[in-house]
Amino acid sequence: KPKVRCFLGLKNRGAGMPDGGLFTAEQFEKVSDLEPLRGQVPARGVIEVKSPQEDVSKTARSDQAERYARRYRLVLVTNYRDFLLIGMDAAGKPTMLEAFHFAGDEEQFWLAASHPRRTADDLGPRFVDYIKRVMLHAAPLGDPKDVAWFLASYARDAKVRTEKGEMPAVANVRSALEDALGLKFQGPKGEHFFRSSLVQTLFYGIFSAWVLCSKQHRNTKGRAIFDWRTTAHHLRVPVLRKLFHELAEPGQLDQLRLSEVLDWTASTLNRVVPSEFFSRFEEEHAVQYFYEPFLEAFDPELRKELGVWYTPREIVQYMVARVDTVLRTELGLKDGLADKRVYVLDPCCGTGAYLVEVLKRIAETLKAKGGDALVASDVKEAAMKRVFGFEILPAPFVVSHLQLGLLLQNLGAPLADEGHERIGVYLTNALTGWEPPKGPKEHLGFPELEEERDAAEHVKRDTPILVILGNPPYNAFAGVSPAEEQGLVEPYKEGLIKQWGIKKFNLDDLYVRFFRLAERRIAEKTGKGVICFISNFSYLGDPSFVVMRKRFLQEFDKLWFDCMNGDSRETGKLTPDGKPDPSVFSTEYNREGIRVGTTIGLIVRTEERAKEPVVRFRHFWGVNKKLELLDGLRKRGFDNLYRISHASDSNRFSFRPSVTTHAYGAWPKLTELCSIAPMNGLMEKRGGALIEMDRRALEERMRLYFSAKVSWEELVALKTGLTEDAARFDARKTRDKILRQESFNKDRIRRYALRPFEARWCYYSPVRPLWNEPRPILWQQSLRGNSFLMCRPAGVASPEGVPLSFTRLLGDNDYLRGHAYYFPVLLVPEHMKVKKGQEHQLQFEATSVEAKPMANLSAAARGYLTKLSIRNPDTNIENASLIWMHALAIGYSPAYLKENADGMRQDWPRIPLPKSAEMLERSAALGRKIASLLDTENDVRGVTSGTITPEMKHIAVIESVERKQLRERSEDLALTAGWGHAGKD
Predict the structure, then answer these.
(1) pTM
(2) Structural domain tally of the chain?
(3) Residue 436, in any domain of the structure
(4) Could you identify which of 586, 715, 792, 857 might form a hypothetical disulfide with 582, taking C-beta atoms 3.0 to 4.6 angstroms apart as the criterion?
(5) Do residue 687 and residue 556 come from a single domain?
(6) How far is C-alpha 401 from the chain's CA centre?
(7) Does residue 72 lie within any of the structural domains?
(8) Which stretches does DSSP call E strand in 857-970?
(9) Burial of 632 by CB count in 10 Å (0-12 exposed, 13-18 middle, 19+ buried)?
(10) Distance of CA 832 to CAs 494, 640, 838, 841, Å?
């Protein structure tokens, strides 16, 4: 969009003196010039300003406005509250174009002006869009990117209008879509999603109809004028025609004031230069301009919520090429995707990128075989009968039909109007309908929706699908999923608790359901085939996916994984050597990409099953990984680019190759050395109200909270997290409960390990839900001056660093990344009542002062110490802590961390145990030194007290930039930077 500058005080050029003119940058000799070049006429029109009392429509019909319009072609008339653009029609007469209204009349305008912030929030974005459209109205329009911006701008305006109006006429559309797709548009989010979807469908329907209309008249003389009211006529798919017809009902559009917005849209489309537009549109992948960017500009919140990310072209090409190859090499189909026995499904096809590439690959294969004049016809047959796509959202569904229709048209085999030819992309919920209903088939609101459902179910139930590929969505719409969909991942949960000890399932991501769907279809129905998805990479090694991985190894014979990395949480989007590692979804049009790391998984089940599955894995890092993917396709010995992964029970069937020492798997896990399971740290989630740097401030706050004399209103005025409701926390009810059950106890103020080397004060109470998770067992174990080794259950970062720490304090759940679990060195067993089978769910009985502590050591750990002639760990605290201090020393060994990185990533660290008491004691002595450095509560000679050792003298030394002495009680130590808000460095 060229820059436009407004210049006031124009000279009279025979039509009068407009108040201002809109000039493009080219009309100034230099960017810094204050006036345009002599003799320049405003390229983007002129401005005429009247007082708020005057009527803009009358001004627009005046002789003055007509003179300006004839001389300058465009006139923006305004009285500050209304804006109206005047242009020239095809007959050369002035005509009113687009309008914008701040208020209905002058009184309402001044009322709005008295609340500038609210008015700016409500109307500012639409007004800015309007002004941009005005300034671009006279600009040449041929770039698809610019056309997409105009459409998104009009769609935003339409969305605002629909959100403010009632829509009773589309209630039947709503209920029919809910029934057909298994969605429920409930609550504010559901309402927003529904209305946003309707607007998108309207605009994409109009755009598709305009494209088809323009293509039809491309070689005719003159130029066809597009009328958006004929859209339904151009839409080939019955369900699309019906949806558009229902949404574009004239009475409803007029009620919502949408007709004028659609008129403006059609007018803009009629300004497009067809030759320029279509040359770029067909060459540069239309969808990069007409779906993801459109949705980003139109409704960025919805785009983020739905996880709508356009799959980069290189990724699509690579995946389709790999599928084509394994069909030939592993399934013996010499023509790959072009073989007529190959049925392909993209269950979440979006705008059809994968289907387009599949059809292109088929065309290339047929041409390479010496294809004749029937190649295009064969591709068309494939698009209609064996290359299928499912999509649940109407807007991308429209675009996919447009994309595939244009592809066939360009190949020379367009879909015929006669016989209702259509491609095999269906509006359906891909996760349901694979099994016949137990009762009678449900009737939907429209016959067209029933036809669409029945056609999709025929593909689901009766077609021998051999290939399932695509980019499953990362998030689900927050509607209610049918029971059939919710139960999809149940097989991946079997045995997680009993067999694997995994209580927290992370299987809610939508892509997991699509994997289960694909696995069931290929392995259990067709019996052979290929699955190729790009998705979140969490399933490669995360503990929650162990059953899923095991099933894949049982059901498939060859598995290839291209790990694309790019994860913000695990690697910080950095390569192992610290260079940028952006998301593979980062493109010129979406530089941010996505936050999660991704992987391309290609898994094959052959007709003759292999004795053992083979898993191949490789990493891609850096900014060129998409090109490296494609380059690899041309290399000989493709499989040699991968490492073999030895997935087994010992590594939770991880698909990632493990870098560990040979003996690592034989060493005991930390959890095999303790007599009770480690405990999570405390979770506050009260905005820091229970945790404080200043002990006195915390005590004062909690005394007020526990005082029945302090009213609720007084507490609210203090603005602490204790008076703000949160998940599982009704603030007022909690306080009432506290006052009934407890009184303030000064002894409950304890030192608190919040983060490494960051100890604060906390006030502890076991009464739920004051603390989100009070961890009473951890509290009891910390009362007797106990100490704790801390660790996390699995790695969450790469590189992770040291997974262990030490404290003598009560501690936080997030002390370590991946959550801190606390291993107490000592236990008081009389405090605990252990039921069989519930050893990890201990309940405390009344505390006994005489209770004797005992070592927190498992039977195996005690046996090991006995073997080394180390006795009495229950009465000798030094002996009780030997194994734990040794583990701490091992955990801080750089060699151990490097050599066993992958093993530790998958689970609790495994610790090698020395074969002699002397070696154990020497290692434990090193561990005690590390513990003393980690212990914030005690001085360390040579580090924090006494004569500081030379290597420590330069650590954490405060200095003045001016090399002067600092005064502690002055502004020398004041924090004045003011980060986080505008106007500060």
Answers:
(1) 0.78
(2) 4
(3) no
(4) 586
(5) no
(6) 26
(7) yes
(8) none
(9) middle
(10) 31, 56, 12, 10
